[in-house]
Amino acid sequence: MLNWEERRQLVKVAHLYYTDGWTQQEIAKKLNVSRPVISKLLQKAKDVGIVEVYIKDESIHTVELEKQLETTFQLTDAVVVPSVGTMSEMVKRAVGQAGAYYLSKNMKNAEKIGISWGTTLAELVKEYPFERRNDVKVIPLEGGMGRQAVDIHANQLAYELAKKMNGTCSYLYAPAILETEELKERLMAMQDIEAVLEEGRNVDIALIGIGNPHKGSTLKTVGYLKEEDLSGLRQSGAVGDIGFRFFDGEGKPVQDELNQKVIGLSLEQLKSVKTVIAVVEGTHKAESILGALNGGFIQVLVTDELTAAAILKEASVQ
């Protein structure tokens, strides 16, 4: 029996070859594999009955959405999981699983992996297989301390992912958002904190989530955002955040005092990371994801079918 990821890959390769007319060499280059691998995948697609005269699989719709996302936003890759008629928590788990599978298969020479925080990234870490990647180090991309939702903080996720990989990790011993800018500057001057932030700026791959401060906000749920903060963010035009860094619909950092109190990677620093993988689900985040895409922060997007369609719809009316 093929699992969902294997079926998706077979459908994607078959679609590019039979429908779009790509050569095996072109597909091999896109997927970072050798041409004989593509030849074997095409044969396997026939053997399992996905390819006859036409491509038959429910994944064809999600594969088409992937292609639209890649083309519209110049992404390296997009992964879209089926979500129609599925409960939200199951969708989150499926997106986390797809993110884990994608990371596992596309790490190659990565030695430093940065990870942000959030519930969907926590699902990715839970679903990640146990491997032996002793040369890999996982680094938290922002601070996170306190008693609320410790299990989804970047430090905890870095530790759990490193354990799954049999690698090592760093810890950023600082809150994500400080009470004052002065306190932030004092902490930033500490050697241990600066060393981890420097590691974060030099990761090979960054795993991020995307939040919407106005709808279904985990930041609000765990107490990071108060009503006065939300009011200020609305006025500044913020549509979303990556690691507590807020941006507007064009992906530009908003000039909000919250941004001045965060210990973690800035949006500009995130742009210098070679591969940023966003793992995110939920149609309420469509505008937030679109802002991040407009800002050019993402190379790979892992999301669900309904959210992918909502992003493309939102983009078409801009």
What does this structure look like?
The chain is 47% helix and 11% strand. By secondary structure, the protein is α/β, with parallel strands linked by helices. The chain folds into 2 domains: 1-57, Arc Repressor Mutant, subunit A, CATH 1.10.10; 60-316, Rossmann fold (3-Layer(aba) Sandwich). Strand 6 (240-242) and strand 7 form a beta hairpin. Helix 1 packs across helix 3 (35-47), helix 5 (88-105) crosses helix 6 and helix 13 packs across helix 14 (305-316). It is globular and about 65 Å long.
Blueprint of the fold:
Layout: H1 4-19, H2 24-31, H3 35-47, H4 59-73, E1 77-81, H5 88-105, E2 112-115, H6 119-127, E3 137-140, H7 154-165, E4 168-169, H8 181-188, H9 191-201, E5 205-208, H10 218-221, H11 227-236, E6 240-242, E7 245-247, H12 267-271, E8 275-279, H13 286-294, E9 300-304, H14 305-316
GO molecular function: carbohydrate binding; DNA binding
Family: Belongs to the SorC transcriptional regulatory family.
Protein name: Deoxyribonucleoside regulator
What's the total number of strands? Answer: 9
Strand order of the largest sheet: 1-9-8-5-2-3-4
Mean pLDDT: 90
Classify the helix fraction into a percent range: 40-55%
Report how far the terminal alpha carbons are from each other.
43 Å
- CATH class type of the largest domain: Alpha Beta
Q: How much strand content do the residues show?
A: 5-15%
State the low-pLDDT regions, or none: none
- Per CATH, what is the topology of the largest domain? Rossmann fold
Order of helices and strands: HHHHEHEHEHEHHEHHEEHEHEH
Number of domains: 2
* Rg: 20 Å
From the spread of the alpha carbons, the general shape counts as globular
Structural class: alpha/beta
Oligomeric state, counting identical vs distinct chains: single chain
The biggest beta sheet reads: 7 strands, parallel
CATH architecture of the largest domain: 3-Layer(aba) Sandwich
Number of helical segments with 4 or more residues = 14
